[in-house]
Design goal:
single chain; 100 residues; mainly alpha; 90% helix; rod-shaped; transmembrane helix
Length: 100
């Protein structure tokens, strides 16, 4: 069964934004303001996301690694085919020079 990557990425990103928003609201209520509010919000939301969204992050990483692996295999096959064609061309040129 083929699963799509973009909905997973969108859900993960939405969850990260929601966690950041909750952290900022809680810090604002606690009295943090200005740059301190944003900095603490980023740090707390990053830590919370690392713990709470581990499964989603791993799922996205596995999907992307699989996609990259498939693209890499295609590129390797095309490079091997290109090398074979170059070798054939080189052999043909060498044979032409040998006949002269």
């Amino acid at each position: 069964m083929k699963t799509r990557t973009w909905p997973s990425i969108l859900a993960y990103t939405s969850a990260r934004i929601l966690i950041f928003g909750c952290a900022v609201i809680l810090l604002y209520v606690a009295g943090a303001r200005g740059v301190l509010l944003l900095f603490l919000g980023l740090v707390i939301s990053a830590l919370a996301s690392y713990i709470l969204l581990n499964r989603q992050r791993q799922l996205i990483a596995d999907k992307l690694n699989g996609r990259i692996g498939r693209v890499g295999a295609k590129a390797t096959a095309k490079a091997a085919e290109f090398r074979e064609r170059l070798e054939e061309g080189t052999k043909a040129e060498d044979e032409e020079e040998a006949v002269r």
